[in-house]
Amino acid sequence: MLKKVVAVTLGVIVAVYALGHTRFGSYVCTAWKQVRKDAGDQVSIDFEIERLKGEVTRLDTDIEKAKSVVATQMVAVERQQKEVTAVTKQLEGRKEKVVALRKELKPGVTTVSFNNQELTADEAAVKLNEVVEAAESTETLLASNQKLLASNERILKSNRKKYDALKVKKSELMDKLVNLEAKYSELKARQAEGSATVETTRFSQTVADVEKLETRIEIEVKKQDLTDDGSDAKPTKPDADAARARADRFLNGGKKGETKVATDK
Q1: What are the two backbone dihedrals, phi and then psi, of residue 237, each rounded to the nearest 5 degrees?
Q2: Assign residue 254 a region: left if phi > 0, alpha if psi is -120 to 50, beta otherwise?
Q3: Number of domains composing the chain
Q4: pLDDT > 90? residue 45
Q5: Are 69 and 164 in contact (CB under 8 A)?
Q6: Across-strand partners of 120?
Q7: Among candidates 58, 146, 131, 123, which has minimal Cα distance to 93?
Q8: What share of the chain is helix, strand, coil (3-state, %, to 5)?
Q9: Is residue 190 part of a domain?
Q10: Per-residue pLDDT for 227 more than 80?
Q11: Can you say whether the dihedral through the CA atoms of 68, 71, 76, 77 is positive or negative?
Q12: In this predicted structure, what is the pLDDT of residue 246?
């Protein structure tokens, strides 16, 4: 049993390899593509128009998904913009504190007034380091937020462009299909008009046959006319006795009795 399973598995592997790495695989793939193409060519145009109209309508699903992505990114970018604005304002405030405390902490002073507090020079130095460190941290945060905001704005711009292009393309496809449908309807009307033309071939043939019959009858009538007036009677072969009798009558002046004598003489 195990040997059979191994053999079948190896056979499948060999077949897959053959399809992917040999001419046979190329032939199979090409044949499949041709079958799909031929099947598509045999589908009626009316059916294909309706199918593609359905496909274009279903593009609304993709457009809605794109809209959701763009809307989410718009909200995120707006929040990041507000955050960058807030951090920028925070940094400005901390920079002002650094400037103010640095201005108070002059060389040789023993006390410093800062933020409504009286600080010794050492306390002011510690405070100044704290304020500078906070300002530097805020500056780093601001730079990071600005970089992230710029990246998300680029992504949003790209996705918004794709979303707008999808809407335009969908509209163009639908308009094109509507125009093609109208064009095909016009073609079907022309084809129907051509197929509805009155058929005159049989009528013309019948007229010709009647004229031929009329000609035949006229010929037969003429032949009969010729027969009736004797114009086509055949000459009869003269009888010998009648010929001799006629000759005798001519020689004897038409006297029958004297014909024999005259002949004998």
Answers
A1: -75, 125
A2: left
A3: 1
A4: yes
A5: no
A6: 111
A7: 131
A8: 85, 5, 15
A9: yes
A10: no
A11: positive
A12: 76
In a 13 Å sphere around the CA of 53, the CA atoms on its Cβ side amount to: 12
Distance of CA 8 to the CA centre of its chain: 43
CATH number of the domain enclosing 99: 1.10.287
Q: What is the pLDDT confidence band of residue 142, given thresholds at 50, 70 and 90?
A: very high
pLDDT of residue 236: 60
Q: Which domain holds residue 77?
A: 18-194
Cα gap 152→158, rounded to integer Å: 10
Looking at residue 29, its amino acid is C
Asked, for residue 97, whether it belongs to a domain, the answer is yes
Sequence length of the chain is: 265
Q: Collapse the DSSP code of 194 into the 3-class scheme (helix H, G, I; strand E, B; otherwise coil) and give the result.
A: helix
User: Is 128 a member of any domain?
Assistant: yes
Look up residue 113 and give its two tokens.
């007034």
Alpha-carbon distance 256 to 248, whole Å? 8
* 3-state SS class at 114: strand
The residues, ordered by sequence, that sit 6+ positions from 200 with a Cβ below 8 Å of its Cβ are: none
> Average pLDDT, stretch 29-42?
57
Report CA dihedral (197, 201, 207, 213) to the nearest 10 degrees. Answer: -160
More confident site: 10 or 253 = 253
Where does the pLDDT of residue 226 fall: very low under 50, low under 70, confident under 90, or very high at 90 and above? confident
Question: What span, in angstroms and rounded, lies between the C-alpha atoms of 244 and 260?
Answer: 11
- Three-state DSSP at 252 gives coil
Query: Mean of the pLDDT values across residues 8-19?
Result: 54
Q: What is the mean pLDDT of the chain?
A: 81
Contact 135, 56 (CB under 8 A): no
- Look at the block and give the residue holding tokens 């050492």: 122
